Amino acid sequence: MAWEWGDGAGLIGGAAGVFGVFVAWASLSKAKEANKTAKEGLVLSRKANEIADAAKNLSDQANALSREANQESVTSNALAHEANRIATNANQLAQQANDLFHHQERRGVESHDVHWDGEWVRPGVYRLRNDGTHTAYDVSATVTVDNEQMRTAIPQIDGGEHLILDFPEARLQHRVEHRRRQEEEQRQSRYFNPPGTPNFHFIEKRVHWKTELGTPKEHIESSRMSGLGEFD
């Protein structure tokens, strides 16, 4: 039987069809594998994202805990400084209380010799003297003669020292009494009359001062039968 071209073509066509079916099947199989791989990749990607999210959450929690720990540390340091400050203040107060106690103790047995004596050194001039042996500190003195009052203040007056106060009205009154006294003496020498009634005045001394250890002291003395000084 003779081979005809048509028969050969049919045979080739059939072989090509079979090959095409094989290629299509192989492609479909590869496509299925690719889809499977893609699905597995998608699953892995999702898992990777979940792991990444979980890691981020853990990181955020760690950062939050770190910030909280830092804040706690700052608070602890602040409390420690405050505790140290309170302890220091308490020690200072305790020391001050102890010093005050000993100071009061010394003041209770302190020897202090200050005595005030006042006199007219000339008409209208009054001298207030510290007749003691110790120093008077923060001295404030007020002397009243009838209705005339004078005040003075001085940081300290040592034993034996004095301060001076001037009384203009007392000076004028002294002159009046002196003139009257001279007139009475003239009458006495002329008519042998008894001497007149002496003139008496109110004099008050108020002195406030402190001792060397700061103990406050006060001296008040008054008389309603005082003169305004000697007459020449």
List its traits.
232 residues, four-stranded antiparallel sheet, single chain, alpha+beta, rod-shaped, three-stranded antiparallel sheet
User: Count of DSSP helices?
Assistant: 2
Helix content: 55-70%
Supply the helix-strand structural class. Answer: alpha+beta
Helix-strand topology string: HEEEEEHEE
The shape, in one word, is: rod-shaped
Main beta-sheet annotation? 4 strands, antiparallel
Strand coverage percent: 25-35%
Spatial extent as radius of gyration: 60 Å
Given as residue ranges, the uncertain stretches (5+ residues, pLDDT < 50) are: none
- The end-to-end distance, rounded to whole angstroms, is 194 Å
Structural features, described:
The protein is rod-shaped and about 190 Å long. The relative contact order is 0.09. It has helices at residues 5-108, 168-191; strands at 116-122, 125-130, 136-145, 148-157, 162-166, 201-210, 216-226. The chain is of the alpha+beta class and 232 residues long. Helix content is 55%, strand content 25%. It is built from two helices and seven strands. The protein has a four-stranded antiparallel beta sheet with strand order 4-3-6-7, with no helix packed on it. Strands 1-2-5 form a three-stranded antiparallel beta sheet, with no helix packed on it. A hairpin with a 5-residue loop joins strand 6 (201-210) and strand 7 (216-226). The mean pLDDT is 82. The longest helix is centred in the first third of the chain and has 104 residues, at 5-108.
